[in-house]
Each structure stands twice: as structure tokens, then as C-alpha cells.
Amino acid sequence: MTHQLDLTIQGTLGTNPVLTFSGNDERRLAYCRFRVATTTRHRTRSGQWVDDATMWFTAKCWGSLALNAAEALRKGDPVLLAGRMTQEAWDSGKGVIITNVLSLTAVGHDLNRGYTRFARVRRDENGNELPDGATTPASPSSATTPGAASAGSADAAPGPAAPAPLPADHWEAPAEQAGQSAEPPYVVVDESVQEEG
Fold first, then answer.
1. Predicted confidence band at 182 (pLDDT cuts at 50, 70, 90)?
2. What are phi and psi of 95, to 5 degrees?
3. Region (Disordered) spans which residues (predicted)?
4. Are the C-beta atoms of residues 21 and 191 closer than 8 Å to each other?
């Protein structure tokens, strides 16, 4: 029997992600945190929808999930989050504050409220993005289905033509859109840099 509280939350990002790095240059660990609001609704006897009180969570994640979440998520995005819930308490000077914390195992956009595109990213063990072609598996067009005959064999049966390959920039979003800069909207804090004092 487990005493852990695993949750899936449907909510909206209340802040842009904050991405930090800890450790030395050889072994840096990415850490991302952001706030998420979720508001449940219920229908009254008269048939009207009423919003309940908004519940806030601090979401935290590490490693490649942190890097990808910081790159993909923006304040106001509808999200689905899965993770383990805990609570953190601290003294604010005016009393003890308790915060709901969700240690994430999975993050995604809520497709009930919009659409998104997936872009696979290859990273090394330190979280650095690998260049195209480095340790990437064979493309689907060069792979064969197990048990299928190759195109040149006598057993090959005629079938539908292979789909045309996608252009190289199919998954790339424009670097700049009207009124937006190419700078990432998330905040990067490098905790390995010590202040001199």
C-alpha cells in the first residue's frame, strides 16, 4: 500500500516557467518551476454554471522534462499535469504559508482548448541538444515493417505509395512573429554562478 498522492490536474499556467541549472559544467541538472491555477465548475439546480474557488499549485520538474517544459509552455497555456502532490510550508513573517506542490512526471497541453505540434528533441546526458543526425534512429521511410518483404523482392505485394517526405522545416515555428522577439519567454537562472561579496 502506498501513501503517496498522485494527481492529474487540468489547469492554466499562471506564470512563465523559470528554468535554473545546478551542478558543475560537466554534470548540470535542469530544474523548472511555474504556477498553475485550476478552477472547478459545477451546475446549479437552475442550470447555471458556477466557478468554485481557484486552487493554485507550484509545479516542479527536473532534467529533460524541465528543459522541454520551459521551452514549450507559456503563461496562460491550458495544460494537463501529472505528478505527485506534496505541500511546502514557510514563515512569511506574517504567518505560515502552505503551498500545494506538484512534482511532475508528465506535462502536456490540454487539447480540449487548442492544438499543439510535437517536435522531438535529442539531448545528451547533460541535457545539451544534439545536432541533427547525431545518434538519431533510421527514418521511417528507410525502416521496414517486421515480416514485410523488401521492395525489390519477388514477394513484394503492390500497395499504396509511400507518403511524401515532410519538408525539413515542417515542425519549426518562425523565430519571430509580429510584435514578438526571438528571445525565449522563460527565465534562466544559473545557480552555479556565485556572487562575489
1. low
2. 140, 175
3. 122-197
4. yes
